[in-house]
UniProtKB/TrEMBL annotation:
Protein name (record): DUF1330 domain-containing protein
DUF1330 domain segment(s): 2-95
Lineage, opening ranks: Bacteria, Bacillati, Actinomycetota, Actinomycetes, Kitasatosporales
Native source organism of the sequence: Streptomyces lancefieldiae
InterPro entries (alphabetical): Dimeric_a/b-barrel, DUF1330
Length: 115
């Protein structure tokens, strides 16, 4: 099942280390089957506030996303970003191809009726 690394990064002043990080990051996730799904695009806020930037990297599985994050290659370059850009980063599994949200709604109704 696919998985995603999602980053919500705050605005930051341009810095040479950030450019180096961007130059090097692809080589760290490609061996794990990762690829950019969202990077450098302007997002459109429909509710609430979402300042900054969104980055989404897709992986074939959560195990591969974790392996990328924990890899020596990524951990070597991560400080190039984290010293200059604040943000939140999560790893999250996708849903299976046959996912049906009605099952989630049914489980919620069942939990509510058990109260």
């Amino acid at each position: 099942m696919s998985a995603y690394a999602i980053a919500h990064l705050q605005e930051a002043a341009p810095h040479p280390e950030i450019a180096e990080y961007i130059d090097r990051i692809t080589a760290t996730f490609e061996p794990y089957g990762g690829r950019f799904l969202v990077h450098g695009a302007r997002h459109e806020v429909k509710e609430g506030e979402w300042p900054g930037h969104v980055v989404v990297i897709g992986f074939p599985s959560l195990a591969r996303a974790r392996a990328w994050w924990d890899s020596a290659e990524y951990q070597e370059i991560a400080p190039l970003r984290s010293r200059h850009v604040e943000g939140d980063i999560i790893l999250v599994p996708g849903v299976p191809e046959d996912y049906d949200p009605m099952h989630t709604a049914g489980a919620m109704r069942e939990a509510l009726s058990a109260r």
